[in-house]
Write a structure and sequence with these properties.
Bound molecules: coproporphyrinogen III
Strand content: 5-15%
Oligomer: single chain
CATH architecture: Alpha-Beta Barrel
Order of helices and strands: HHHHEHEEHHEHHHEHEEEHEHEHEH
Number of helices: 15
Shape: globular
Number of strands: 11
Largest sheet: 7 strands, parallel
Strand order of the largest sheet: 1-4-5-8-9-10-11
Radius of gyration: 19 Å
CATH topology: TIM Barrel
Length: 361
Amino acid sequence: MQATGLANDHFLRALMREPTPYTPVWLMRQAGRYLPEYVATRKKAGSFLALAKTPELATEVTLQPLDRYRLDAAILFSDILTVPDAMGLGLRFVEGEGPMFDRPIRDEADVAKLGVPSRDSLGYVYEATAAIRRALIGADGRQRVPLIGFSGSPWTLACYMIEGGASRDFPTIKTMLYRRPDLLDRVLDVTTRAVIDYLSAQIAAGAQAVMLFDTWGGVLAHDAYRRWSLGFMERIIAALPKENEGRRVPSILFTKGGGGWLADIVRTGVDAIGLDWTTDPVAARRTVDGRCALQGNLDPAVLFADSDAIRCEVRKVLAAFDSPRTPGHIFNLGHGISQFTPPDAVYAVIEAIHEGSPGPA
Ligand code: CP3
């Protein structure tokens, strides 16, 4: 496909635990409502879903944070709920309430109808991926930064598919887990196959790293996490193409609330683990012991502080990871950036990262 090289591959190098001149950084949800230009493009699209389903506009918003900040990776603009949407559950976003499904999965008959979505039904995602790759080519003919593809984890997708929307305590899926584990197994099995196909197609379309968002893995009981979330993610990691365009396609696994399970997570063979802000990086480094890279983990609420406090907190994160001296750290937030973040706070984060180490070319 694109024969051009990368002008900046520090993110991919850090994922492979290779040395980099400074700590590469990107932010979860870096294209989003905290940016006025995003709000303007969403308005033009009419809705969030229309924005995500129009490759041209998805490309536009993917590039917005890169044009503003010195970020080291782009992330495909899409959503984890595109997969259950393509499975026919009827996705809607209700203002102030978040995502909702018209046809949640509740019984045997609902489960029987589930299948792996056709590549066509998610074609807009793969078209956006390819369009973003083209748009990332800079004036010098090289790709500015690598592009990350992503998916929800089977457990996290099933949380939305079964609850029918956002939830605090997840009573419906947990009832199914303890009363009808056979049914939940079937939901997770088909979702796992769907995610393998989804991420493989994103890689074929040009995604250069992939991330699994296991946003709700942390609500599982200690011994249930392996059985109901991690095991399915392990299957996905094992099944994905490991190389494309002559280069390794690294995988990142992020379980929010998963800081106590790092020893299990590292055994999946994943290239990097995303840490939320409650996890101690020093303890995490000891646990993974150089077997994978680590990504994270500034508390997103730090971006509500003044620039001196932001600098101080960023330095603490870098020191805890011994980054960039010890290779294998990618700076990120411990969860998605808040829609109420002042855009200037992101400049303060990125400046603090580049203090004391040479900035990007
Ligand atoms: O990181 C990026 O810039 C890429 C884009 C991205 C979005 N969603 C865009 C989006 C990514 C990686 C996601 C992942 C996602 N979506 C997750 C996992 C990560 C996490 O935050 O834990 C989850 C749980 C979802 C499901 C989802 N989509 C929720 C709960 C919401 C918020 C609903 C609301 O109104 O607050 C969304 C919508 C969504 N996805 C928005 C964006 C920018 C905001 C929608 C808008 O513009 O109105």
